[in-house]
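Quick one: structure tokens for this chain, please?
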Amino acid sequence: MMEYNLFGRVFEKTYGPATSPYGRFSTAEANRVREAVLSLRQSYRPQYANEACMRCYDTEENRKAYMLAYYPYYVDPAYRVVRDYVVPALQERQGFYPVLNLAFFAGGPCPEMYGTLKALRGARLHDRTTVTILDWELGWKSEQRISWQLCKEDGLIHHGDEGQLIYRCDNLVPCEQCMHGKTCRKRIHEQADVYFLQNYLSHVEPAEQETFLNKMRATVEQAKPGAVFVIIDLQYAGSKAIMRELANRVQAEWDVPADIIGTNLFAGSAPAWSCCPYEMPAEVQAKIFRGDDGFVPKKWTRYYYLVLQKQ
């Protein structure tokens, strides 16, 4: 299946067919990519335990480097969580969905869309799919197009499926204050079956945590009964703290009826480990991830997850 060559296809679609694993990737081009990879990796290493990671997606080079350094690794966590928790929850609620509505917040290039649709492929749960990717950054359009192309090539998106991109979506601002509020209410809040938020909490400053929690509560309140909320984030202290506080509020004090249907935050709270199932092209490793400081090839992803379902 083409899926198993995902890494190589991401490389080729991001940097062009001339730089495919079987083509030529000049030293100057490789150094430019390495500079961007290093910029990203440094931004994900906060100085203090609860400090948020910097957002470093404002340049085309950094966004393209993200596709190599991170995109292939973030497909599998979404796939596992959707397979193990979301699909059974949706099946229990409704036997078949003529149109399954999926909303990916802070989506960036949206590897979680590929992982989600991969998990849904064998479930025979739905006919058509409506996908919305929301993000603050305006520049992810090319990378989001790559995600859509990968899904089409691998049979995860079919004729009649429909997608839309919404930019300037701020997860810290009430929807009523957003220019897209009316669109999202009709397209998402009244219809979405799955809300997804992956690798966003690590960018939330400590002073913004209460704002995020309030926005999350409002989102759950607006959602239709049966909607599922998936939050996945990396092994950062701040991300774990926000997720645990959200879980505690759902269990204890919310007046919005919702259940925790899956999490690894409790019972020892060890992060889940996901081994990337896609092999890095030899040329990418030889010229970019050579094993020197800051360029050790990534293999494992450690993450926490919380899955809620509105009653």
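The chain is about 40% helix and 20% strand.
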